[in-house]
Amino acid sequence: MKLYAAPLTPVDEEYIRKARSFAEERMAPIVEDAEQQRRQPALLREMIAEFTKLYIPKTLGGLGASTMTICRELEELARVDYGVTFAFEVHNHAAMVLSMTENEALRDRYLPGMLSRELGPTPRLSAAAPRCRMGTTSSTARRPG
Question: Are 41 and 84 in contact (CB under 8 A)?
C-alpha cells in the first residue's frame, strides 16, 4: 500500500527552504523563552513580512502560491512551534479574506500593511505553557498609532 501521493499542485521549494531556515534559525532559539514569559515573539512581524504574501494573489501584490506550497510552509514553521505558527496563520487568513473583499477602499487601506510589518499580528498568545495549547490562544485587534 502506498500512503504518500505527490502534491496535486506545484510546490515552490525556495519558499519551503526559507520557511525551514526561518524556523530553525529565527524561531527555535526564542520561542520557548517567549512562551515562558507570556509574550508574543516579535519575530511574528518578520514572519508576516516574509511569508504572508504567499497567500495573496499576484494582482494584489502577493505571490499567489499554490495550496501545497502554503501547506508545506506551515509544516516547516509548525515543526518548531505550533502556537506561534497558529498565531501567524490567523493573521494570514485575515489578510487572505481581506484580499477577496469587493470593498476596494477597505482592501487598499489595510492589505498593504498586513503584508508588511506595519499591521499585525492580531493574535496574542495568552498562556505560559510549553508549545502553546490551542485552548490558551486569544486574539486582540489594535489600531496602529
Answer: yes
Mean pLDDT of the chain, nearest integer? 77
pTM: 0.70
Measured CA distances, 89 to 4, 6, 102, 105 (Å): 25, 24, 22, 24
Element holding 43 (H helix, E strand): helix 43-51
CA distance 86 to 33: 17
Per-residue model confidence (pLDDT) at position 133: 42
Residue with cell 473583499: 101
Q: Which one-letter amino acid corresponds to residue 115?
A: L
Q: Quick one: which of 7, 14, 8 has its CA closest to 73?
A: 14
pLDDT at 91: 85
Cross-strand bridge partners of residue 125: 137
Which helix (H) or strand (E) covers residue 139, if one does? Answer: strand 137-139
Give me the pLDDT at residue 131, please. Answer: 45
| Strand bridging mode 137-139 / 123-125 | antiparallel
